[in-house]
Amino acid sequence: MANHLGATEKELIEYRRSKLEALRKAGIDPYPAKSKRTKTAAEVRADEELVDSDTLVVAAGRLTAKRGHGKLIFADLTDESGKIQLVFKSDVLPPDQFEMLENIEVGDFVEAEGTVFVTKAGELSIQVKKLTVLSKTIRPLPEQWFGLKDEEVRLRKRYLDILLNPELKELFVKKARFWQATREFIIQKGFLEVETPVLEVTAGGADANPFTTHYDAHDIDVYLRISAGELWQKRLMVAGFEKTFEIGRQFRNEGISKEHLQDYSQMEFYWAYANYEDSMKLVQEMYQFVAKETFGTTKFSVNGFDVDLAGDWPQIDYSETIKEKMNIDVMLASEDEIREKLRELKVDFDMNEKRGRLIDILWKQIRKTIAGPVFLVNHPVEVSPLAKRKSDNPKLVERFQPIIAGSELGNGYSELNDPLDQRERFEEQAKLRAAGDSEAQMNDLDFVEALEYGMPPTTGFGFSERLFAFLAGKTVREAQIFPLMKPEDKSKI
Q1: CATH number of the domain at 9-141, please?
Q2: pLDDT tens track for 320-359
Q3: pTM of the prediction?
Q4: Hey, which end of the chain has fewer CB within 10 Å, N or C?
Q5: How many Cβ atoms are within 10 Å of 343's Cβ, its own excluded?
Q6: Taking the CB of residue 66, how many other CB atoms lie within 10 A of it?
């Protein structure tokens, strides 16, 4: 593709290579190992005492503009803190370095040493007295006014997208704040941060299809975890810990959508001697704290919904909501009746799906219409293989999910600590896997054995980076700094 001057990318690369060779022939190292920078651009701008003084400053960064000719050349130097103007005069800069400017292009990294002054046009600038090349670029940056328009290219060359788009850079600064605020909140509540295995012999803690890899040292196949250590953290409750949490990566070998990725960050906590009602109170407070710390507000516009996370969140009943919206009681309906309702709604589903999955598919049709924030409660036991049954109705479990802008943005429950009940539910899940349900949970007998030693009443909860993406008004893929892409065919480049 030709640029605005008519040169192809290949021609521009060859042109820049010639500049690189010219620098080397002049005895200049175009890739030194260190910079002597003493001030960032923002620090230069902030220090009024530098103006018109003899104090030398050393700034470093990328040249993002270059203008002028002859004996006076101006350039913009940009670093992470901002931008500062550089002024090169032939009677101030050593002759060999002024000549070197012929081989310096926009995009190159340089170091400029000089004094600070204000130009006649009122621009704070550095009068450069010494110029050092820090990194000579081979490829030209996309034109600022053209940029990266193709989404595939933007995601593949994320480093350029961030470089040219300050708003995108700020998005990832906010994402860092999001996880920092989460960690700060949960630690303040007395939770201990732990690290649990990413490679597992049995993938557990969620209904998901795991990635499989091979462990050479033991010559066994293992799985990348599908939860942030749920079954491991519950083992820690058996071990005597009472409040633990983990923030880490988890992996699910499933489809990509606006809300789903295969490789993403998750936070999960586990809290002994507490139940799902205690978790709900903590989660509401946590979401409000993290939203304010990250975005400075509790009010958001997401997926066409106006959402305010402030105040107390109401609860809605799982089966009662389905009955109200769909005119079907999933607690009494047969599998065939649920299938018929899905057909009536023209929802695609696998005819071999069992009761729990069919109920979940039906619920998801309603979820899309709920603005929230609300807590979804009273889930049927069929859709919750790890949650404790309700004492007053064993067909339901002590589970809750925050529903915000038509999506489930978290999941928590009173953990099942009855080893016999857990064994039975794992066995039911194993039957589903044997029948072809790759997302059904595996039968983790080691975990059941741990429960047989006794786990105190415990509540657990987790949320993924989907929460950040929603509050930021982005798809989860856009909100990942380097989403996985198919390999590019380099033979065409």
Answers
A1: 2.40.50.140
A2: 999 999 899 999 999 889 999 999 888 888 887 888 889 9
A3: 0.88
A4: N
A5: 12
A6: 17
